[in-house]
Fold:
Amino acid sequence: MNRTVYSIDGKELRSIELDDAVFGLPVNEDVIWHAINNELANRRQGNASTKDRGEVHGSNAKPYKQKGTGRARRGDKKSPILVGGGVVFGPKPRDYSYTIPKKAKRLAIKSILSLKAQSDMLKVVEDFSIDSGKTRDLVGLLKNFGDTVRTVLVLKDDDPKLKQAAANIPWLSYLSYNRLSAHDLFYGRRVLMLETAAKNLSGFYAGKTQEAAE
Structure:
């Protein structure tokens, strides 16, 4: 698959060959769904907690006697049907995380990359960095590629200055090529990929290297 490489000014520079085994696959919607739900589940803190009637602070005494009042029978004030009482079957702290097969996750990433490439939502950009680390410099560069829509920037390495500049842009997510997120990629309306990252992805996800996505 041939894609155009753009300059940081948004102008066409040259063509690059992308591996069809990564960017030209049929889209597998099922595995994408499983990968996204897995990521969302793993992000959950799982610290919601409620008290049942045995944990609520209060007296165990009956508020009035059982018989002779004409009223309904009543237990203690910690009953779940009373205001301030315990909660029935309420949430407790738990771990929501689980794992999916590594091959399934890799297939999901490749399916999303293929979907973005086929939908013309993926652009390859020449390698750049933001030496100043300033957000306004990165925003000015990104405006050369269109309006401020939800954008994913795929980096070729761990660039601290570029990450510093991107940290305060609410509509921008940045990912390293070997640590891609199915959720962020799928919901990004525009994917900007550095040229070296695109080359590395062809080997990383096509199985031409011994590395494995996590």
Notes: The chain is about 30% helix and 15% strand. The helical segments are 20-23, 29-43, 102-118, 135-142, 160-166, 182-187, 195-205. The two ends are 26 Å apart (CA to CA). The CA atoms of residues 10 and 145 lie 6 Å apart.
